[in-house]
Design brief:
It is an enzyme of class 3 (hydrolase). It is a multi-pass membrane protein. It is found in: Membrane. This is Rhomboid-related protein 3. By secondary structure, this protein is mainly alpha-helical. It folds into two domains: 5-151, no CATH class; 159-390, Rhomboid-like fold (Up-down Bundle). It is built from 17 helices and two strands. It has helices at 5-11, 14-24, 33-41, 51-60, 67-79, 87-94, 100-112, 126-138, 142-151, 159-179, 208-211, 219-240, 242-263, 273-289, 299-322, 336-354, 364-390, and strands at residues 48-50, 84-86. Strands 1-2 form a two-stranded antiparallel ribbon. Helix 12 crosses helix 13 (242-263) and helix 13 packs across helix 14. The longest helix is centred in the C-terminal third of the chain and has 27 residues, at 364-390. The protein is elongated and about 80 Å long. 38% of the residues are buried.
């Protein structure tokens, strides 16, 4: 699975090869094409090459290019209405940069290239079918699906979601042995004594705002969270990478505990629901916003099942929160962390998933949501420092 690029070009049909070559635009092996384009075709350093000279360049070096790649570049030249091509656009195309000029070239090239959609390709190996399935599950545009299908190498693998899941399960099993209880562990009198749980009396210990994800209320809580984050998080990480998905997950976790410290000030927090709900809500919002473009099978059923599972888990959390506590006067863990994760998912998460392989720092909406998130974090910090004393709350005693 990790070495599938040669297999894709060699074994798949000409339709996929045409589209993938057109969309990837690999770096030229020859070193003399780009320098020649600068010196011979733009002697005045205007930054532009006339379409006529551009076509001459392609004809002169066409033998060094894949025929499908040459066809797309010619389509770009033919469809350019102003008679000139930005040299930097040409450099971006040849250096495999996904810029706006790249997208324009692909869209124009696809009008000229007659190819089947990726879903219609036959004779694919098991790994190729898996990657194609992931592409259709997470990406709304055919261009991005083909790009992802052709370029994915499983290196690195989706390690973040797998690693975080293994650690969560390991901590749960350890606590199960220590407490001699695996169902509703949270009702055990010694449960809150764990140094990973967020407790309002110990909110000054900053690590608890993050480490609470390694403690779960019981096997029913852990099982649903693990199932959801693997089924949704792993495919998302395969497409968007560990950095983006890890950011959404951790941002949801921190927002969850901070939301509890603001809205449910006397309750502790356990579980990874903040991060899980951030991923799921971002994914579902992306599907709904791109409904016509999403070609995943049974998408309506999948959305309904995901919403039912989330509602069930959220309902369990609400019931547990208001169930008589096993260690009064401290209540059971709060459900507000779920809502904090949802808010992160439909803001930061949607922007990240929508801009596949695009530079987030170039997206104004990204910076707006980052600014809002930072403001919320700063507000929650000041709230934790001053509001508890000003409101004269009676907090439960430390565990």
């Amino acid at each position: 699975m990790g070495d599938r690029r040669p297999e894709t070009h060699a074994g798949s049909s000409p339709a996929v090869a045409a589209s993938s070559e057109a969309e990837e635009i690999e770096v030229l092996e020859s070193e003399d094409v780009l320098p020649m384009a600068t010196e011979d075709f733009d002697p005045e350093s205007t930054g532009y090459i006339s379409t006529e000279k551009f076509q001459n360049l392609l004809q002169r070096h066409g033998s060094e290019l894949d025929p499908h790649k040459l066809e797309v570049l010619l389509a770009l030249a033919d469809n350019n209405s102003d008679g000139k091509i930005c040299y930097q656009d040409f450099v971006n195309l040849m250096s495999n940069k996904r810029s706006n000029s790249f997208r324009q070239a692909i869209l124009q090239g696809n009008r000229r290239l007659c190819s089947k959609v990726l879903l219609e390709e036959t004779g694919l190996s098991l790994s190729q079918r898996l990657i194609r399935h992931v592409a259709y599950e997470t990406l709304p545009r055919e261009i991005d699906r083909k790009w992802y299908y052709d370029s994915y190498t499983c290196c690195p693998p989706p390690w973040f979601m797998i690693a975080i899941t293994i650690v969560e399960v390991a901590f749960f099993l350890y606590n199960g042995v220590v407490l001699d209880r695996f169902v509703l562990q949270v009702t055990h009198p010694l449960y809150l004594k764990n140094s990973l749980v967020y407790h309002p009396q110990l909110r000054a210990q900053a690590w608890r705002y993050l480490t609470y994800i390694f403690m779960h209320a019981g096997i029913e809580h852990l099982g649903l969270n693990v199932a959801l984050q693997l089924l949704v998080g792993v495919p998302l990480e395969m497409v968007h990478g560990a950095a983006r998905i890890g950011f959404v997950y951790i941002a949801g976790v921190i927002a969850g505990s901070l939301a509890v410290s603001v809205a449910d000030m006397t309750a502790p927090v356990v579980g990874s629901s903040g991060g899980v709900y951030a991923l799921i809500s971002a994914h579902l919002a992306n599907i709904v916003m791109n409904w016509s473009g999403m070609k995943c099978q049974f998408k309506l059923l999948r959305v309904a099942v995901a919403l039912i599972c989330m509602s069930f888990e959220f309902g369990r959390a609400v019931w547990l929160r208001f169930h008589p506590s096993a260690y009064p006067p401290c209540p059971h863990p709060s459900f507000v962390a779920h809502l904090g994760g949802v808010m992160v998912g439909i803001t930061l998460g949607v922007v990240i998933l929508r801009n596949y392989e695009q530079r987030l720092q170039d997206q104004s909406l990204w910076w707006i949501f980052v600014f809002i998130y930072v403001i919320f974090v700063l507000f929650a910090i000041f709230w934790n420092v001053f509001a508890y004393n000003l409101l004269d709350l009676k907090l439960p005693p430390p565990p």
